Fold each of these.
Amino acid sequence: MQALQILIDGFAISSLYALGATGFTLMFGVSGVLNLSHGAIMVVAAVIAWWVAGTYGTGPYIGGAAGIAAALACAFFTYRVIVRPIQNSGAIPREEKEIFVLTGTLLWGIMLQEAVAYVFTDNPKTVPPLLDGVVSILGVRTPWNEVLTAGVSWLAIGLLYLLVNRTRTGKSLLAASMNPRGLTLLGFELSRIYVLVWAIYGVLTGIAGVLLGAFLGVSSTNAGTLTASAFSIVVLGGLGSVSGSLIAAYVVGYLETVTAYLVNPSIRTVPVLLLLVIVVYVRPQGLLGRR
């Protein structure tokens, strides 16, 4: 019975990890930006959803929509105020801009984290369940909210897949990740593509944050851990590889779940970090990475 519980819980948390890492990976693949404020934006989405649903009595769905909108606003602010000015700066050498972007997004993430702690305190907060009740899956009583978490995560990933592979706009994102110079020669404006990818990123991160808040709960102190988890997943899967990140999300999710159930929840991330070190030494490009 415990094995089934691990299988079910691991699938839900892995699906959530996959959703959060997909936006992170898409961002790097298209624009080359590793956004180290990722975890803080997820926390903002969850806390705003909790605050709106609880303070105004709007219910979890309107609260969730407010959380996603907050994440989208944070994503656009990150691009317009932090990332874009650094990328367009003539005072920063081209070869040093990447490290400046990393530093800028890291500091911005810390500022968001501290702002959330100041306004809402750093106590854990749980978004009201999006779906009440429990269901029996092969004899294991599982909250409907956990099932919904996995379902919504994969629905969002599926919609992203259709956008990227079945629309002209989505295919321009793929082209930007492969040959941005060639895309500009065809008449596309990279600035518009970057705005689009940041918008997609903001929505995906917002959904992941709200689902996380309803599934496990969050506090401002989780921001760094969430960023580290997403970074570990994209490194394991291969920087810029969405399919690799999906596989890595399930490796990480199940490894953490098994550790939490069979060893100790307080060290659930330790095996993941050890695996990351091994992968970096044995296969630096990750599972499906090209670079």
Amino acid sequence: MSLHYVALGDSTTVGVGDPLNGSTTDLSGAGARPGEGWRGWASLLADSLGSSHRVTFSNLATSGATAPVVAADQLPATGAGPIDLASLIVGVNDTMRSSFDAAQIRDCLWYCAEQLTGRGALLLTVRFHDHGQVFGLPSWLRLPLWQRIERVNAAYDELHARFGGIRIDMADYPEVYRREFWSIDRLHPAERGHRHLARAFADELQRQGLHIAVPPALDCAGQPPTKWADAAWMLREGVPWLTRRAHDLTPWATRLALTHLRPGLLSTARSPVDAEVQRLRA
């Protein structure tokens, strides 16, 4: 039996955090394409599927991708022929930008799902966990980030209800909140995290009747970062990264916090931030 599997998404689907050879603390992924130094869950799943089937695998994910990028750039690159499996996992990058637009994300995801399933694809998606808990963000920044993630999750709920397929709820897996699941940046899965995600999808595919002779292995060659490596990375890379993200999130998060504390304080404002606050409170 032959299978055509296409993977769409961002740096997690590229495989960032799961190096092909050795270990690395450079997780920028700038300009990275699948196969350039990273393996990742999608490749692990494709290899496992290859134990029982003739697999054609196209990983079209790109680091830094947002939902509009997937719809505009990655989806057309899938061609026009039949597809058996299609993974569509994107949205976290969208939540960390001042241009966050939940309706646009939903429309892009819906369009991709409609096109992919229309060509016969079984859709593979996720429900995201609380990234702020993994990052260790302060509560005033963690709450608005989680509210944005939940709005992305709501879009995936709609997709799953309409198009079916397999959906992995990351919050259902206790290991998601363990340090060893994550690479040194706590944003991308480490080798262990990628292996667990690949295995979760493989297990669900088998429950739906797709035979997989050799499921993705859970044993890892790499080791979790040491406390010293964690600290060194945080000073060199983590603080600048958080500063860049805070530039997008802080004004909106602060205004949201004030609105919750003093509902009438900003009642006459008419900025895009106020519109976002009203949508979240609705």
Amino acid sequence: MNEKKKFILVVEDEPTLSAILCEYFEHAGFEAKSLDDGAVVVDFVKHNSPDLIILDLMLPNRGGLDIYRDIRTFSRVPVIMATAKVEEIDRLIGLELGVEDYICKPYSTREVVVRAKNILRRNDMPAQEEQGDLVINELSMSAIFHQKALSLTPAEFRILSFLFKNKGKIFSRDQLMDHIYTDHRVVTDRAIDSHIKNLRKKLTDVDPSSDCIRSVYGVGYKFDA
């Protein structure tokens, strides 16, 4: 029996661009549908459950940020936000919304398809993993430590989840940045140190003896099982 195709929703009001994107996704083995009116997106998502959404920031009748916030009240569908303005990406990042990825126009349609494939591949992994007193749930982007929910930013969650899945392996700051900041923005390696520091504090607030995220001098960080 044929495996059901993943369904990609392209929300874009430039007809040529949306047609090209849908065509590329279909050639890559996906089912694709485009919408060009922001006012109809939320209801469509509720009734059709796409596997991933390419969501333009600037749309007729309703903006991408409002749409995204509404979708997050009932769905964890991965979203790639698109914008024509580089400065808008900075604003989105500042909001720490938890959007899976950001792309800036003009972009390579091939690259968008590759990014979408990578996100869907990660989402196809087991939703929940646990080790000792730590439970990680990718779908809800939540972590429970000693039966207490951790209040993590998206960046902190991605670091914890990535290190947790690769227990015992050492990752440099650059490798962690490549995994966490999928939009390839320029940040200093000290940003990773800051996230790790905050993450450790949240873990030790629950268990003062916790030392699961280890520093390896001159190399990087690892999760100690």
